[in-house]
UniProtKB/TrEMBL annotation:
Catalytic activity as recorded in UniProt: a 1,2-diacyl-sn-glycerol + ATP = a 1,2-diacyl-sn-glycero-3-phosphate + ADP + H(+)
GO BP of this protein: phosphatidic acid biosynthetic process
Residues that bind a divalent metal cation: 31, 79
Organism field: Pseudomonas mandelii
Bound cofactor: record note: Mn(2+), Zn(2+), Cd(2+) and Co(2+) support activity to lesser extents.
PANTHER family membership: DIACYLGLYCEROL KINASE
Compartments where located: Cell inner membrane
Domain of life: Bacteria
The protein, known as: Diacylglycerol kinase
Taxonomic lineage: Bacteria, Pseudomonadati, Pseudomonadota, Gammaproteobacteria, Pseudomonadales
InterPro entries named in the record: DAGK, DAGK_prok, DAGK_sf
Length: 120
């Protein structure tokens, strides 16, 4: 067991929820890309309820939008960790940040592809 692990049971769940909300708050206030994706989700998710699609298709439309938010959170976490280690330019740091960006590009492409396949 890690000495850094804290509470168990309900207390752990409450603590974890607080940490998660702190992370969402940090992403929203500090990351423009996250705010842009939130705006995209605010538009696309309600729009999915007005489209003439099956429930499964609607679930897919919503899931790919939420997936892009997840990927952006992970990308921002990687960037923060890299910057915490060192702001010095290093090829491995560049690779890590570029791969996070590539993951987000794939997630955004998935939104476009899934929405196009379902709607066209």
């Amino acid at each position: 067991m890690s000495p850094f692990k804290g509470q168990t049971g309900l207390k752990r769940i409450l603590n974890a929820s607080g940490y998660s909300l702190d992370g969402l708050r940090a992403a929203f206030t500090g990351e423009a890309a996250f705010r842009q994706l939130v705006l995209l989700n605010v538009i696309l998710i309600p729009l999915s309820f007005f489209l003439n699609v099956s429930r499964v298709e609607q679930a897919l439309l919503i899931a790919v939008c939420l997936l892009a938010l997840i990927v952006e959170l992970l990308n921002s976490a990687v960037e923060a960790a890299i910057d915490r280690i060192s702001l010095e330019l290093h090829p491995l740091s560049k690779n890590a940040k570029d791969m996070g960006s590539a993951a987000q590009f794939v997630a955004l492409s998935m939104i476009g592809l899934v929405w196009a396949v379902i709607l066209l």
